[in-house]
Amino acid sequence: MQYSGIKDKVAIVTGAAEGIGYAIVSLLLKAGAKVVMNDIDPQKVLETTAELSEKYPQRCSALAGDAGDVAHINALVDFTLERYGRIDFIVPNAGITLFGDFLEFTPASFQKVVQLNLQGAFFLAQRAAKEIIKQGGGGKMVLMSSQVGIRAYKNLTTYAMTKAALRMMAVNLAYELGVHQININVIAPGATLTARTQQEQPDYEGVWSRLNPNNRVGTPEDIAKTCLFLLSEDAAHINGQTITVDGGWTTAGKYPEDL
Asked: What is the pTM of this model?
């Protein structure tokens, strides 16, 4: 399906060099958008940008850096405005998962998770909103939560807190920014097969395809397709909502230890 309102719009996507972020960028470019990619890994994001630029000339740029750092967030927005003259969409996709026993979790680890998952999304949304209001015409934001922000998961208290907080952030921003025609929605991905999740758990696909009610693991494209819809004009009247893309796991899915 070809969604309306994507062509020639300008998007910022963080955590974009691989996995879900890369899939979102790919679909946005395919739909005719211009995209600034961000990732913490400078080599990887430059390689990815070069690859995509061959297919989509003049429509893909990159600025590497820490998406949780406010100074870098401002630099990323400035770079986008200099390169393309406006901002229409933001997808603060960058995030970090740190497993750890609640009773032993350290302040340093806590701050690391909160800085990227919450501070990064909050201040990118704040700066982008200011620019969108200034330029007029509205805009759209898609925040990236998680199934773990909906259902409990062992040793992920801090991560779960941040992902649940993003859902409430969208609710509040939809209320505050709706008058400026800025829509903020959330995707809560379930078990999704990426390079990172494969590193975190051996046989990730085998385990989660057995745990999910639909008997398969999610793909980055599953999430990206939902994101493209929420950024399109076809979703113009959807605001402050969370769409869970998890194959049904949050309804009654089991946990790995249940196997």
From this structure: 0.96
Q: Could you read off the pLDDT of 82-135 as tens digits, one per residue?
A: 999 999 999 999 999 999 999 999 999 999 999 999 999 999 999 999 999 999
> Which sequence positions are flagged as catalytic?
159
DSSP string, the chain: ---SS-TT-EEEESS-SSHHHHHHHHHHHHTT-EEEE--S-HHHHHHHHHHHHHHSTTSEEE--S-TT-HHHHHHHHHHHHHHHS---EEE----------GGG--HHHHHHHHIIIIIIHHHHHHHHHHHHHHH-S-EEEEEE--GGGTS--TT-HHHHHHHHHHHHHHHHHHHHHGGGTEEEEEEEE-SB--HHHHHHSTTHHHHHHHHSTTSS-B-HHHHHHHHHHHHSGGGTT--S-EEEESTTHHHH---GGG-
